[in-house]
Design a protein that fits this description.
By secondary structure, the chain is α/β, with parallel strands linked by helices. Helices cover about 25% and strands about 25% of the residues. The protein has 3 domains: about 140 residues, Chitobiase, domain 2 (2-Layer Sandwich); about 375 residues, Glycosidases (TIM Barrel, Alpha-Beta Barrel), CATH 3.20.20; about 150 residues, Sandwich (Jelly Rolls), CATH 2.60.120.260. Strands 1, 2, 3, 4, 5, 6, 7 and 8 form an 8-stranded mixed β-sheet that branches. It has an 8-stranded parallel barrel with strand order 9-10-15-16-17-18-19-22, surrounded by 5 helices. Strands 23, 24, 25, 26, 27, 28 and 29 form a 7-stranded antiparallel β-sheet that branches. Helix 2 runs parallel beside helix 3, helix 4 packs parallel to helix 6 and helix 8 runs parallel beside helix 11.
Length: about 700
């Protein structure tokens, strides 16, 4: 009786103390949304400065995290104490027998006690994250008691692999920034950090056996200005992580139940290594750490045993450092032009008996030799390789995990072949793309258009796969490449709140998605972003109706037929986009532009009746760094019967240079007034010029809104 009396007295004092303060109820509707939340009428558990956190053996760090979060959010720390059967407070325990999935957790709230149970320590950690995100945020310099509604939350992840990627090679991110990035992943229930450590533009990891990699390869003598112009600054730029720094980072991540996956991208994207050791390339150099963006044609020489030994040595030293069960070996964007001319590579092809076939060249199969050789090195250490989906182009190791980035097609093919797959398609999960069509108001980035809505709507499990094949989709990942992201604040802006949508896909993969409800949950996350001084985009909180239509003209809504089809990925709604009255803005993949490469845009508009006209105008997008140039020529032809056409106007258009601005341009073709039923508009593109990294390839043309006046 005395114990109960003391408890009631203490509770009364606590409530009297709190009566002059605001006490706010926690809200369990967080991101990612828990699968089961069952509240009851038993009341609340009150969190205050006297609340204790009890932890079982092995969970002290988790208890300390909860203490830190409470101090940050509520304004006061909680006491952490080893658990010894206490019946009041917040209790952290591991009970694997109560769960059938790893990383699962349960939060049970009663008026006297909060039990956070996990299938493992990671599950307890994710339960703490849910509690953290549920808490009300105290105003500055105040202490805020909080009510937890009584009930039970039970939750588990749909995907065991939940990742984010970061590229510090194009623009270096210091160790403190990378730690904040890991904190961001933890806040969003992610457990894999893909760390891209080698590139044409910089080598970022200390390798003891090859110390010159960080003396030479970690620094470039300038950086291209803008979107791959032919202009460069002269500022020496770079940096790298020592092995001691990386050990510290690995520990930091492990405490937050995040595995760091190192990537050494090979055999392409190796120019920084070649600048250090030119004998590893096919030509012998000289090479420089690349100052521009894109894909260098200089790659590791596949026929050079010294180059192959270098790659093996690097991977072994990386594995000595990183305990990750996964090692990423790249395999993407490896041009074969050097191999085609290299005597050593051709001799290796002959030695291995490699033959090309109708699907792949002999050089493609030579890359398979390189990737499989590296896979054996990794597998000999009990690890698994991850490679970009290009490694499917040839004979790939049966145990390799495929990271599908060029769409979902590679992932579908890999899953059908029995490979495990991580879905990371650029169409939905490349966070270096613009978040708004109003790109003039956005910080510069690589191009493209990827709003939060598109991320949220992504379906990681393709319907083309059987349920058994879908089991090979082990996870989902978003990527942030930093060609145009020079600061960590910019990284944060590109990541959030798209990271919220990604977290929902990774943890829940909901069958039915309510974007409006999701946005409301994002508002609570934004309060935490503000608390931690994270930089984030606010487009979804401030929707705007853009004034992006044109006045009706003679062609508006008329039937349009295309004689040449656009590229499949830039077809969208098809020919009708060309005269629907809705203008394409600055993002080429917004769904409002038709994209053509190697063929002209050739559109026939049926005016339905003979119509008097005197002018045609159309809009084209220019983004030279993305290989999108202005048209070279536009021709207008007319017909009375739809079969016999004659030319009435032609315009030759000079090619845009690097000193000319990118943007949207309107082209007008005038002619003597005439009457016709059919009008044909032919727009032809250029080939990329000599001063472009894609020289010799056809430039893209992106066209929208043909007007007839």
């Amino acid at each position: 009786m005395r114990k109960n009396t003391l408890f009631l007295l203490g509770a009364a004092i606590l409530l009297l103390t709190a009566c002059n303060q605001q006490i706010v109820e926690a809200d369990y509707d967080v991101i990612p949304q828990p699968k089961e939340v069952n509240l009851n009428s038993d009341g609340h558990f009150l969190i205050a400065a006297t609340t204790k956190v009890y932890y079982e053996e092995g969970l002290q760090r988790e208890a300390e995290f909860l203490n830190e979060y409470a101090n940050e959010i509520l304004g006061y720390p909680l006491q952490t104490v080893a658990y010894n059967g206490q019946d009041r407070g917040i209790v952290l325990t591991i009970t694997p027998e109560e769960f059938d999935k790893a990383e699962a957790y349960e939060i049970d709230v009663t008026p006297q006690r909060v039990n956070i149970k996990g299938a493992d320590a990671a599950g307890v950690f994710y339960g703490i994250q849910t509690l953290r995100k549920s808490l009300p945020i105290a105003p500055p310099d105040t202490k805020l008691p909080a009510f937890l509604p009584c009930g039970t939350i039970r939750d588990w992840p749909e995907f065991g692999y939940r990742g984010m990627h970061l590229d510090p090679c194009r623009h270096f991110m210091d160790l403190d920034s990378v730690k904040i990035y890991i904190d961001m992943l933890a806040l969003h229930n992610m457990n894999q950090f893909h760390f891209h450590l080698s590139e044409d533009q910089g080598w970022r990891i200390e390798i003891k056996k090859y110390p010159e990699l960080t003396q030479v390869g970690a620094y470039r003598n300038g950086t291209v200005i803008g979107h791959n112009s032919n202009l460069y600054d002269s500022v020496r730029y770079g940096g790298y992580y020592t092995q001691d720094e990386l050990r510290d980072l690995i520990q930091y991540a492990a405490e937050r139940h995040i595995n760091i996956i190192p990537e050494i991208d090979l055999p392409g994207h190796m120019q920084a290594a070649l600048a250090t050791y030119p004998q590893l390339g096919c030509t012998g150099g000289p090479y420089e750490v690349w100052k521009r963006w894109g894909v260098s044609e200089d790659v590791l020489c596949a026929g050079n045993e010294e180059a192959m030994q270098f790659a093996e040595d690097v991977l072994n030293e990386v594995m000595d450092l990183f305990p990750s069960p996964y090692i990423h070996i790249g395999g993407d964007e490896c041009p074969k032009v050097r191999w085609e001319q290299c005597p050593k590579c051709q001799q290796k092809i002959k030695e291995l008996g490699i033959k090309g076939d109708e699907r792949f060249s002999k050089e493609d199969y030579l890359q398979s030799y390189v990737m499989n050789r590296m896979a054996k090195v990794v597998e000999a250490r009990g690890r698994r390789v991850i490679g970009w989906d290009e490694i499917l182009e040839g004979n790939v190791s049966e145990t390799a995990i495929i990271m599908s980035w060029r769409g979902t097609e590679g992932g579908i093919e890999a899953a059908r072949k029995g490979h495990d797959v991580i879905m990371a398609p650029y169409s939905h999960l490349y966070f270096d793309y613009y978040q708004s069509e109003d790109i003039a108001s956005e910080p510069e980035c690589i191009g493209g258009y990827l709003p939060v809505e598109r991320v949220y709507q992504f379906q990681p499990l393709p319907s083309e796969l059987t349920p058994e094949q879908q089991k090979h989709i082990i996870g989902v990942q978003a990527n942030i490449w930093t060609e145009y992201i020079a600061s960590f604040k910019h990284v944060q802006y590109m990541a959030m709140p798209r990271m919220d949508a990604l977290a929902e896909l990774q943890w829940n993969n909901p069958e039915e998605r309510d974007f409006d409800a999701f946005v409301e949950r994002c508002r609570k996350m934004a309060q935490l972003y503000d608390l931690y001084h994270y930089n984030y985009a606010t487009h979804i909180f401030n929707p705007q109706a853009w004034a992006d239509t044109v006045a009706s003209n003679l062609a508006t809504g008329k039937t349009v037929t295309l004689r040449q089809q656009p590229a499949e990925k830039y077809t969208f709604e098809g020919a009708a986009l060309l005269n629907d009255g809705n203008l394409g803005r600055g993002a080429y993949n917004s769904g409002r532009w038709l994209g053509f490469s190697g063929v002209p845009m050739d559109a026939v508009i049926d005016m339905e009746t003979p119509t008097e006209m005197r002018q045609v105008r159309f809009r084209a997008l220019v983004n030279k760094g993305a290989w999108i140039y202005n048209p070279s020529q536009a021709v207008v032809m007319v017909s009375d019967d739809g079969e016999n056409y004659h030319e009435v106007a032609k315009k030759d258009i000079p090619i845009s240079t690097w000193t000319d601005r990118d943007g949207i341009f309107t082209y007008e073709l005038e002619f003597e007034p005439l009457t016709a039923r059919y009008i044909e508009v032919i727009v032809t593109g250029y080939d990329l010029p000599e001063d472009h990294s894609g020289y010799g390839n056809p430039a893209w043309i992106f066209i929208d809104e043909i007007e007839v006046l």
